Amino acid sequence: MKLSIRGERLSGESGTLRLMEDLGRAMAEGDQYMLGGGNPALIPEVMAVWKQRVRELLEEGPGFDRMLGCYDSPRGNPEFIKCFAQYARNRLRWPVDEQNIVITGGSQGGFFNLFNLLAGEKADGGTGRILLPISPEYIGYANQHLDEGVFHSLRPLIEETTQHGFKYRIDFEALREVESASLICLSRPTNPSGNVVAESDLLRLYQESRRLDIPLVLDNAYGIPFPGIIFGDVKPFWKPGIISSFSLSKLGLPATRTGIMVGPEELISRIVAMNANTSLAIGSIGQALVAPMLNDGSLDKLCKDVIRPYYRARLKDSLAALEESFKDRFEYRVHETEGSMFLWIWFPKLRCTDLELYHKLKCRKVLVIPGSFFFFGLQSKWPHSHQCIRVNYSHDPVMVRKGLEIIADTVAKNC
Ligand code: PLP
User: Fold this and answer.
1) Which end of the chain is less packed: N or C, by CB atoms within 10 Å?
2) Range 113-142 average pLDDT
3) What span, in angstroms and rounded, lies between the C-alpha atoms of 281 and 267?
4) For residue 71, what is the DSSP state?
5) Strand 33-34 to 366-367 pairing
6) How far is the CA of 85 from the centre of ligand 1 (A)?
């Protein structure tokens, strides 16, 4: 089979493929310590809400038939878009309307469209790059572009916050030296580190995006307003020209593949066209489930009263379990988990690479994500990028505790 260069790139080996295949295999086999992929926790109270919504949809009759039996517009379901615009105006206080919103096939599909729309080979022969101001950044971006070499990731500053804690900070001096890019993109909370970049730094980032005359893209997959897996007091951030991405996945609905993108009308209308050209329309089920919960306050309440406390409790337990297993055995640091469902663990004295550690752990049935997958686009080698792993802390506490014990045991032999 003769593939195109782009076909080769898009269908080749990648961290995302490995992660998703590991996840699928572990779910099928069922005897693994699943600290790897990005599946949200199946919180019983949350799943009960979705079951109730399905019952309501069944009773609604024509609504249910429409949901399954009709293509929506490539912008998304008109009723959902209307509700979301109202929600954005009233709840987030953003001056947007329906023309500023598009639904995407998961936010993953939205990023594919956005990145290929703005970055890559340009008419003048240059390459428009995607600037990631804080590496490590979400693994799922890495293989999203049709062209090679479009990512330009900046090494962050490392602040040691406590004896075993650390936090990445944006290196604004390095950022000011960047002369051109096509967009700046940041996940907040950041996957994998759980970093929530402070509002004052967001403002500076926005100013840099103005200097470069390019959009700033904020990925809120774990953030506010939903699912709200953020543990400090954080406000929605909006400025003219910003593109914000949201997802229903971490509300417990990843299988509905629903993302929402909000941004300038001329750009959003291009994504609408890309939806039509690549998929005709986006799946309707997630939108139908969530639409009535946007403006009656029930979605916000679910995030505030159930989802955030759940993750906060799971985080507390897993940090305690981690300390018990790791303490006094080897050097380690954990990034401040200000949001998301991950522990980002750094072993500064690791004698093997993160990938070797990943394989050793996999042999012992513990699945984690090797950290180096998240450091794509760096301009020079960085030993730190081979000294970290990402652990999903959100599942069964007994499993997480046991998994952390096996990690400690394995690392102790390799430090
Ligand atoms: N952005 C971030 C930071 C993520 O972690 C994920 C998935 O885990 C996505 C985007 C894509 O999510 P989805 O396509 O399920 O909306």
Assistant:
1) N
2) 94
3) 18
4) P
5) parallel
6) 22
In this predicted model, which residue has the larger pLDDT, 38 or 213? 213
- Three-state DSSP class for 232? coil
Residues 250, 259, 261, CA angle at the centre, nearest 5°? 125
Hunting for tokens 């939806």 — which residue is that? 275
Q: CB-side exposure of 256: number of CA atoms within 13 Å? A: 22
Question: pTM for this structure?
Answer: 0.95
Answer yes or no: are the C-beta atoms of 375 and 136 closer than 8 Å: yes
**3-state percent helix, strand, coil for the chain, nearest multiple of 5:** 45, 15, 40
Query: Mean pLDDT in the chain?
Result: 95
- Ligand 1 midpoint to CA 413 (Å): 34
**By the 8 A CB rule, do 93 and 236 touch?**
yes
Can you say whether the dihedral through the CA atoms of 324, 325, 329, 332 is positive or negative? negative
Ligand 1 binding pocket, CB closer than 6 Å: 38, 106-108, 138, 140, 187, 191, 219, 221, 247, 249, 254, 259
